[in-house]
Amino acid sequence: MRYTTSEAGINFIKAFEGLRLRAYPDPSSGRAPWTIGYGTTKGIRPGMVITKARAEEMLRRDLREIEQVVNDLIKVEITQTMFDALVSFAYNVGVGNLRRSTLLKNLNQGDNQGAADQLLRWNRARGRLLPGLTRRRVAERDLFLSEA
Q1: pLDDT attached to residue 26
Q2: Of the listed 7, 17, 140, 147, which one is catalytic?
Q3: Which of 13, 44, 86, 119 sits between 20 and 30 A of 108, alpha carbons compared?
Q4: In a domain, 13, yes or no
Q5: Kind of pairing, strands 124-125 and 128-129?
């Protein structure tokens, strides 16, 4: 089965990413990658300004790419909420990190609880524990384990 992110999943991502209509540098480094909208980094330059509608388009474009990779990586049956949580995670940390993660290994071995618990390990940026990432990972874990 091929999944797409549900509207609830999109709203979940939006809530954690926030909306910024003016480009800003990576918060953890103060430099590239530049980000805009709901966390879009592809093709973003300093000084860029967009509309809310454009931010929505960019998010949905980015999600289509991530959904394709996440669908390809998953080898077991999952729920919609599991997919939404995995897309949120991959949107935030990158599909390469998901691809190499123990989270994915556990999931594909049928260990849903182990996979969910792995989400909690991804709450640092540049080695620093970040409360915002901790909140996001707890929420992703809760979403992953929910039955919607």
Answers
A1: 81
A2: 17
A3: 13
A4: yes
A5: antiparallel
The 10s digit of each residue's pLDDT in 127-145 is 889 999 999 999 999 999 9
Q: For residue 104, what are the domain limits?
A: 7-145
Burial degree of 82 (CB within 10 A; 0-12, 13-18, 19+): buried
Specify if 55 maps to a domain. Answer: yes
Active site residue 17: yes
Find, among 82, 80, 75, 84, the residue nearest to 105 by Cα. Answer: 75
